[in-house]
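Known limitations

Structure tokens in this collection are predictions and should be treated as such. Users comparing against experimental data should check residue numbering before alignment. To illustrate the layout, the record for Peptidase C1A papain C-terminal domain-containing protein is reproduced below. The input appears on top and the generated tokens appear beneath it.
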Amino acid sequence: MKTKICTLLLCMSAIMFGCKKEAAKETHKARAATNARTLGARLQDQGAYRKLIREDRLKGAKTAALCSAVDIAYLFPAPGDQGLQGSCVSWAVAYGAKSYYERGEIGWPLTSNNHVFSPQYVYSQTHYDNSEGGGGSFFSDALNLVVNQGVSTLDVTPYDPWDAYGYQSTPNPDQRRQAFYFRNTTWSALPSRNVEEIRVHLCNREPVILGFPVYPDFDNLGPGNEVYDDLSGTSRGGHGVVIVGYDDARQAFKILNQWTQWWGLDGYGWISYDLIANNNWEAYVMYDSPNPLLGETYNATTAAGMSTIGYVSGDFNGDGNTDIIHPWDYNGNLAILVHNISGGSGTNIICDQTSTGAGSGNVGMVAGDFNGDGKCDLIQGWNNGGQLALTVFASNGSSFNVAWNAPMGQGYGNIRLLPVDMDGDGKTDIAQLWNNNGKLGIFIYRSTGSSYYQAAYLPTDISPSNVGIFPADWNGDGKTDIIQCWNNGGALGIIVYGSNGSGYSVVHTGTAPQGYGNVGLVPLDYDGDGKTDFVQCWNKNGMLNLILYRSTGSSFEYIGNYATMESATNYGMLPVKRSGMKDGIAQIWKNGSSTAIFRYDVLNYQ
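Generated tokens:
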């Protein structure tokens, strides 16, 4: 990943700098500051500040030919409102710079609160005192916090500009858990008075965060007074903003402020080169950390107990978002709960059905679109006198109803069911996996949209023991293939059974570099290329780790290993989709007598 650098500048001393201005400007600067707003940048003394300068601060970003003008304001969120809290440093570091870098890394737009970063998260832990507004903060404290903890998004940790004591609400475990995925690697101070170095960073599309003293001239920026270039009068204190461009013709830097869009020039303003060059400033660069590819974005605990039947995932109501479907035993009857997990937090039960007209015993359950209507149905496999029988519960978007029920003619023992679309017609077929005299056998039952019939049989030479198996369109042709992972001498062996539309045959064998132990396997298309990738889930010292493999269409390649902050015990893993987003996975686990659901989404495409 390209190293991203953010520069922060902070004025240390209010050294007066005089400059001649036109008569209209002289009249303007004599006015008292109007609509004075909250500040909050606390300044280091020069001795302490110089100790923070490191030699590698540019990370090779110098350029021989500087641009004459740069404007990257369109890559930032809109001007915000720090309101009554002295949180300008946190706005500059989190809302401004961090949002910019994560937009560049992830590619998401900065138009919603789940894509911009929270000044509340940073300021609640770096405020100087407990007075009204919190007393401001030091840039070094904010920078250290984002290195050590990261920062959460604004939807997860909201900010109230009207609450002068809002900083007293410190992050809860869920907010800290999300922040873990959005950290920086390190930071450094820059030498004071270095206009050229700031321009170098901006020319390389590396924004600058500026800290400076606020005099009346800055308070009164607006049409007719666009450039802050006069330190006459009395300073109200230090302030922090983001530099989002410069213009050599103006001899000034463009800034993004957080005093609403009604301040200055629609929330923006300009600060002259001369003010920076002729005063002692603090300046910092921060190095953004590559995000883990998968990160936790949802956490909820339901009132329902852990199911003895199992969990499946699918789009219950056809809205484009995957739900978690929870079949369970209710006094010997099959009952169904459906959890909507498309939101940012909390749980939303959208179906609570205690009667389906079927029993819950001897059940294997899969989710799929039996009739091709875009809503997820449930297919129940059960023991009908030693034979496999299938019952289809069709979704109407609000409940499930029995749509078909019949024996399939094959034995029930040693069974597992997989949802597949062997022929690519949009209707879910069923693969039955069973032990055929010590070898794995696979029966395929094709859906007509109103019933199932046996369409194919695939014998294999692999033992059914120590096997993980899942459906996947590994080459993007619209037909579901079957991926078998097995213990190949302690390594993860991979066999792909490719669909030709009417049956299956082996089309790929390989061995992955990671071990086989403690395996759960989840198919997902993490990069959106139409080919199914997969995540190998395993227990590393009690914590859930995720290993990602990408499909090239002819093999699987190892992408990376990503740690989570959740326990690996009692887990089941399911694929999930959200409308307009890349695929993710959901972790189901037992939380006391209740059920907990975590969702991990793609944070960083590689």
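For this record: Confidence is low (pLDDT under 50) at residues 1-34. The longest helix spans residues 88-106. Please report discrepancies through the issue tracker.
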